[in-house]
Amino acid sequence: MSILGEFKTFILKGNVLDLAVGFIVGAAFKSVVDALVKDIITPFIGLFGGMPNFSKLDFHGILIGDFLNTVVSFLILAAVVFFLIVKPMNKLMATIYKAAPEPPAPPTPEDVVLLREIRDLLKEA
Question: Tell me, what DSSP letter sits at residue 103?
């Protein structure tokens, strides 16, 4: 098989295509969650404690404000994803895939029952 044929086989594998689709959907979803955090969650938090903007904060000339803004945004984003997507999806999956009741044990074969009776009789003797 030629190198080009091997490359074509690699690219057309299902897991590579699934990964590409997942990446594209994830990138699009990130913009939705970013907008939710920026336009809804952050202003809501700002109602209680002022806008959480640390961009002018510095520590002995080291500007750490932008880093703190990024950390706060990440924590808000992670909380939104966890509570609005992961938890409901886990609950939905648990509902869909409820553990099937355990099947009853198969009946004990007659010869095993007979051997157990003989064993019990020998113990009594």
Answer: P
Q: Which CATH superfamily hosts domain 3-101? A: Large-conductance mechanosensitive channel, MscL; domain 1 (1.10.1200.120)
Among 41, 45, 33, CA closest to 81: 33
Q: How many residues does the chain have?
A: 125
| Cβ atoms within 10 Å of 37's Cβ, excluding its own | 21
Amino acid letter for position 29:
F
> If you search the block for the tokens 């590409």, which residue do you land on?
20
pTM: 0.49
Q: Distances in Å between the alpha carbon of 112 and those of 103, 121, 122?
A: 21, 14, 15
Residue 51 is classified by DSSP as -
Closest residue by Cα to residue 55 from 44, 38, 70:
70
Per the CB < 8 A criterion, the answer to whether 54 and 68 are in contact is: yes
- Please, what is the end-to-end C-alpha distance for the chain in angstroms? 77
pLDDT tens digits along 22-66 = 888 888 888 887 787 778 877 777 777 665 666 777 788 887 877
